[in-house]
Amino acid sequence: MATPSQSETVVNMQEEEDSGGKMSLFEHLVELRKRLLHSVGAVGIGMVVGLAASRPIMDFILRPIQAALRANHLDDNVFSFSLQGYVGLYINLGLYIGLALAMPYVLYQVWLFVAPGLYKHEQKAVSGFIVSSMILFLCGVAFAYFVLLPTVLTFLVSFVNHGPVRPLISLNEYFELVLVVLVGLGVIFELPVLVFILSVFGIVTPQWLWKNLRYAIVIITVVAAVVTPTPDATTMLIFMAPMVGLYFVGIGVSYMVYRKKRQKQMEREGTQ
Fold it and tell me: Where are the domains of the chain?
């Protein structure tokens, strides 16, 4: 006769199994078409809004370089060397803004498509993964814009502003630099999510991460030296600081995953 704890375990397993939806191939295709149409519609609306908001956002993106120019006692003008280049940049910026605005809704549509086929614990894991990834990416972009970018631009302008040489800032080249820095830091801030995935599959453990801390710092230093667009040590240290901090956050995330897996293993051993 099953004990109460064993009976509850069986009931919980059955509830989790029932939570995974079963659909035919045709129903999956219909559902996929629906989610794709919703996503494309959201991206289209986002692009229209992005094009309408391109000018004020362009002014916002230009603020760091204008501040760097003024800090070096220069005119804060940024130049466009072709009319079609400016129009193309204006349209591309609107498209980027539209994608950024529509991305939460697109991810929500992806979630609606995959959630019916997942168990409850898998739904919680996937939703937590999506939300944490978005938050970390936005934190990386914010850090790049408010901390790293002003330092990088101030150094570059002061380096070029020497003797008779004066910087002539190209609008398109500046936007390419901003895009690389913002997206690069956003991706780097996903490090805890990567550690979480590796820890779930047992590829890394908190003990292994802590043991290899010095090697990780060496790798972070090399990456910072390669990725940082300026050769000065100050900018490289500013770039390294969040990466080292994120590594320690990753150790904490790995520890929580490891502890949870240990608790489940002990519970299974206790019910046997």
Answer: 24-189, 190-272
